[in-house]
Each structure stands twice: as C-alpha cells, then as structure tokens.
What we know:
By secondary structure, the protein is of the alpha/beta class. It has helices at residues 24-41, 60-73, 86-95, 128-139, 160-169, 176-182, 195-205, 234-242, 271-284, 298-305, 317-327, 350-364, 368-372, 393-403, 444-463; strands at 3-6, 9-13, 49-54, 77-83, 100-104, 113-119, 154-156, 185-189, 210-214, 247-251, 258-261, 288-292, 310-313, 329-334, 338-340, 379-386, 409-410, 415-419, 422-428, 434-441. Strand 19 (422-428) and strand 20 (434-441) form a beta hairpin. Keywords: Isomerase, Magnesium, Metal-binding, Phosphoprotein.
Amino acid sequence: MALIKSISGIRGTIGGKPNDNLTPLDVVKFAAAYGSWLKTQANSKQKPTVVIGRDGRISGEMVQQIVVATLSGLGINVINTDYSTTPTVEMAVVNLNADGGIILTASHNPKEWNALKLLNNKGEFISGSEGETILQIAANDDFSFVTVDQLGSVTNNTQTLQNHINQIVAHPMVQVEAIATAAFKIVVDVVNSTGAIAVPALLDALGVKNYTVLHKEITGDFAHNPEPLPENLTDLSREVVKQHASLGIAVDPDVDRLCFVCEDGSMFGEEYTLVAVADYMLSIKKGNSVSNMSSTRALKDVTEKHGGAYYASAVGEVNVVNKMKTVEAVIGGEGNGGIIVPDLHYGRDALVGIALFLTHLALSKKSIRQLRNTYPDYFMSKNKITLDGGVDVKAIFEKIKTKYKNQPINTDDGLKIEFDTDWVHLRTSNTEPIIRIYAESNLASTADNIAKRLMTDIKEAMQA
C-alpha cells in the first residue's frame, strides 16, 4: 500500500493507516490544506468556489463526500459535478468563474488507488511552488475551520459535460459534417469509468451513428488494467476485427488519455495520437509544438514538415503547459496519449482529441492503418522498476551518469541519454514508487535492448 504526496496532489491506495495510505484522515488534511491555500488566493471574495468532479472508482463517492464536507467546513462554496472527466472539470472552473477545482481520480492507476488532483482558477494544475506551499500547510496542520454561520454552500451541476462537448463541437477545426459523412463504425473501451458517459455523448454530438461501447458499466471495478497500453487493450482489438469496425478508441478512467486501434486490430500507437492530431492542426494553423522529453521524436518530424519548431519539456502536464505558453505552441501534449489544444483549454483532453482525430481521418479519405503508415516509424520501449522504501534514486542516477559520461546527457528531468539516433530516458514517477525507463529507436529490438541495458544498470547500482 502507498501514499504519495507531491506538488501535483496526493495519491494513494485506499485503506490502512494514516500517512501510509489514502485514508479519510489524509483526505481531510490535504483537502483542508488546499482549501486554506485557496482562500489566500481568492481574498477578493468572501467565499471562494471550488468545482469538484470524480471518475468512476469504487472509492470515489466516499472521497468526494469527505472533500466536499471539508471544503464546506472551511467556508468554501462547492459546485459538485459528481461523475465527470478531468478535462471537463478543468473547463468548468473557467466556465463557472470558480477559484479552483479538485478532480478525484488516480488516472491510469488500478482500482485500489485514488487521488486529489488540484487546479488553480485557470482550470490548470497548480504550479510546483504552489504545491510545495500546500504540502507545508498540510504538514503543519495550518488550517482553521469556520463557525456554523459561515459554512460553504454545496450545489450540484449536471451541465458541465454538455458544455464541454458544446465547446468541442464549436471548435473551428472540428468538422462535424465530415465526420458524419464518413459513417465510421467505432468500438470504444471506456474501462468501467466515466468515459462511459462522456465518449458516447461526444460521438452523438459528432454525428457518429454506429458505435459499440465495451466495459460501459460505471463500477470502478476495471475490466482490465486501466492504463491504455497495447497489452491491456486485447478486448478492444479483438472486437474491432470481429465487427469489421473502422477503428477502436480507448480512454483511461478520467478521460485525459487517448489511443486508437486500427481496423486490422493493430495499435495506432499511443505515442502517435498526438502526432496525428498535430499533423492535422499544423496543416491548417502554422505554429510550434511541445511534448515532454519522454515522447516520440515523430512530433518533431511532423512539426518541422509544416514549418514549425518543436520544443521538449520536462515530464508532467504543468511543465508541458508552461513550455507551450512560453513558445506560443499551437498544439502540445504527452506521448501517453495526452492532447492539449490551447485555444480550447490548457489541459490534456481525450474528448477534443477524439473530435480532431476523427476530423483528420475523415478528411484524409484513408483508413486509420493507411493514415498511420504516413508517419515515420519509431519504436518505443516503455518499462519500469518498482522502488523499495529508502532507495537513493539520486545516487543511482549519478552512477549511471558516470558510466555514460561520454554520451550527451540531459538532466532537466531525471536522465536522458542520447545514443546517435536513439535515446533513453530515466526518471522517477510523480504518481507511483517506480523508475520509468523509456527508450526509442527506429528498430523495436534496438529500443528494447537499450531499455534492458539500462534496467540492468539500475539494478546493479541499487545493489552496489
């Protein structure tokens, strides 16, 4: 069991003892710390307002009730959207003129996990310095609750998802008529979470008439590992082939990650979700792109093809967003299937990703497999090593840095080592007690071998 306190929020497994797992006491403490910080940011208002939404996890209702009551006890008004998606809550903060937001989701983590993702008044993830302040408030129990006459109100809002979809449909690069005319047959895997509400509503709005939804019961008891990776999407792949569908779509539990399956059951590749959407957008609106340094170099190739410049950021949505703002990027995101369209909002959004991808596919007059074949082939090997308590990751990275001192090395976010046209990126996760090892090459075997070599190096350094 685990509890991870980071600058981006608090995440842990449900049950167990406080400070070791995500217990009700930990939820109260962190929600109170966030609310106390928010009150210092919204001092022009007598009572700040926070938008709350949750994915379909088993623990979601329990955690939601605790967070809502805690914020109310601080004198903060709460707009409760109940079942929602991460991008929907992000947009609702702005649309409802709220002062912040909390999304109750552990994203791609298994069902025993849950988390509080924290937003500012722009509907964006809080900054590193803001997160540090909140952690300090929580550590010191530096919060005070209001008297009975000052309790915050709680209102329910069931319109936020429809408002989100309306704004997507109205986006100038989303062409509903083209999508409807293409008459796609689609299979969707929503992994027993709130994508079961959001994705069908979006497809209906886009004029898609023929679609099937897998794992559509919102139980939080995920039918498979909820991370949208090839090994977890065998049901979707099989069903696409069985139904002779045009494509398959998979989202994660909070609907901020997106990937596709081709008509032959093969994977389009989560790394290429952003590549394809960027290719479409940059063909119309010239400009720059951003992804994190663990993402495929294919985005750089596509961006330069359209006359733009590509920039890499440290891993983490807030880092990608900050870099996008700095370079005025037209499109950005992460290679895990996260699409950020800044003229809609600065957050990963699988729903707008679906709309833009289907527009691109419809206008291309190609099958999804044919579209994938138009992009350069890079192969990424994604691996991880679980960390035991007390492991000195910094010392491990120093040993590896010394071993590969003759190679170009970037230390902005963990270690990224260049090998001619190949690369490997090592970094600790913000959401799990692991080291991630990502390697990319134009040959799958080479990428795997590089990753295996570095995993051996890590294990040897841990034992030294």
